[in-house]
Structure formats: structure tokens, C-alpha cells
Design a protein that fits this description.
Blueprint lengths: L2 H9 L6 H10 L4 H11 L3 H8 L3 H7 L8 H21 L2 H8 L18 H15 L5
Helix pairs in contact: 1-3, 2-6, 3-6, 4-5, 6-7, 6-8
Protein name: DUF2384 domain-containing protein
Organism: Mucilaginibacter psychrotolerans
InterPro entries: Xre/MbcA/ParS-like_toxin-bd (IPR024467)
Amino acid sequence: MTTVDANILKTIPSRVDASKTLGLIKTGNVGPQHLQAIKNITAFNDEKISDWLDISVKTYRLYKKPHSIIKARIKEHAIMALSLIKHGIEVFGSSENFLEWLQKENFFFDKKAPIDFMDTNSGIKFIDDRLTALAYGDNA
């Protein structure tokens, strides 16, 4: 993780929180650097991340360029994803361990991988709730 990515994560809520996410979006400080941070921290390809954001790969790549105008719903989804990633790193101790868990089939996700739920805000919230449960001793 780069210093820029670490600094971005410092500004992100540690849990998925609608009011804090909205506050960040309304400050106008959410931009291409947040989309790039998702890619840098997760090392997932553009196709996977654009699927999460429900946009084309071309649009995702355009949004990562400096001075891009990003739609509010994409900013919201990006902040929520970063909050989830930050929470996952806190629970699992490293991005590698969290990303491994995120990609494994899980009983609580109807025997699907949690990552399959990243394409909606409610899915991200559901994953975040499972992370909270894990942090308090619930099974993986």
C-alpha cells in the first residue's frame, strides 16, 4: 500500500456508515484518487472493480484520471468499498488476509464468496456486518 493510499484510508470511516459517507461526498474531496486506492489496495483488475461499481471498464478507467467528474453514486460506492476494506484489514490484520477471506465461499453468504456481494451498497453493508460479527467472536 502506498503512502497516498494509507492517507486516503485515514480519512475513510472504519465501518460502513451512510452519514459519514454522505459527509465525505458532500465535501467534494472524493475523486479519482479513491478509485485508484481501491485498485492499489486490493490489486483486483479493472474489470472486477468496474463490476462492483456497475460501470463499464472504460468508464472506470476514465474516472481514475485526474480532474474526472465522477457521479455521486459511484463516489458513494467507492467510499463504502474503502470503508469495508479498512474494516476488513482491521479485523484480519492485513489486506492479504482480508482479501483471501473475501474471495472464499462462506456459509453466511449462501455458500458464495463475500466478494460476490460487493456490487450493491446493501451487499457491502452486509459484508461489513459480518466483519463486525467476526470481530466479536462469531464464526467466519
